[in-house]
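Blinded run. Sample ID left blank on purpose so nobody reads anything into the name before looking at the predicted structure. Input follows.
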Amino acid sequence: MLGSTYPLGEPWVKGSNCTHLLVSLPYPYGPDFEICAIGAGHLHIYWLLPITEIEHDYKVQNGPDALEEVFETKGLEYWKTKRKSVI
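Blinded prediction complete.
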């Protein structure tokens, strides 16, 4: 479900601080990527965004929209596997 988080139990890659996955909209790619037409219907594409435990805790306390606002404000470098928490 959008906004849900899932613990990985260990870093998602060796040396990473990210130990959880956030189900999120693929914001960097925009709505043209998110919504795909299929025949007479469509589907929505979400992504699993690796986040740190501190970011997860912030999301639990403040909600997923608040966390994603922090990501936007701080300029989350989601492509960096060993990034530090933005919280």
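Unblinding after everyone has recorded impressions. The chain has a mean pLDDT of 93.
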